[in-house]
Amino acid sequence: MSVSLPSTPADAPASPSATSQRPPTAAELLDFVRTSAADTALIASLPRDPEGRTWVRLEGPGGSEAWLIGWPPGAGTGWHDHGGSQGAFATAAGTLREDSLAVRLPTEGWRTLELNGDVDRRRDLTDGQGRAFGPHHVHQVINESATEHAVSVHAYYPPLPLMRRYSRSGAVLRLEQVERPEDWQ
C-alpha cells in the first residue's frame, strides 16, 4: 500500500536543508524522522494491516525520500542495505529491534561473505527513539511483539537507488537480490 502525505508535521519548523540546495545531513534526517514520529495525527493516519507491513510515502527534507511504516506483530525486513544512501529512522509507536553489522561490506563483486569477529550490533528502539546511519549500513528491523503493532518513520538521502537483500546463516552473509525503486512503487 502506498499513499502520499504532507512532507512534515504542520507545527514542525522548516528544515534548513529544505530551503537550500545542499543535501540534508544525517542529523537533519534524524531530526525529521523524530519530529514526524511525534506527530500523532500523522501516525494515526497510517492504515494498519494485521497481516503485513503498510507504508505511506512522505516528502522528506532537502529532496530526501521518506516513509511512514506500520509493522504488525512479528513483521521484519530481513537483512538489507540502502544502496549507498545515508538514512535515519525513528519509532513512533511500539518497539522495533534493529540488528546491524559493524563492518563495511564491499558493494560489488561478491555473492557470499564470511563475517569475522564480533560484528553484530543490536538496538531496541521504543517510542520517540531513533538513529541515523551512513551509506554502507547493513541491517534488519523487526517488530518482535506478539501482540502490539509498531509504527516508524524513515528517511534516506539520496532517494534510494536500490536495496540489496541478504540472507544470513551464522557468520555467512549471502547476497540474494537487488531491488530497484520500480519494484516497490
Give a verbal description of the structure.
The radius of gyration is 16 Å and the shape is globular. The protein has one domain: Jelly Rolls, CATH 2.60.120.10. By secondary structure, the chain is mainly β. The N terminus is likely disordered. The strands form two sheets. The protein has a seven-stranded antiparallel sheet with strand order 6-12-11-3-9-5-7, with no helix packed on it. The protein has a five-stranded antiparallel sheet with strand order 1-2-10-4-8, with helices on one face. β1 and β2 form a beta hairpin. The longest helix is centred in the N-terminal third of the chain and has 12 residues. The chain has two helices and twelve strands, in the order ααββββββββββββ.
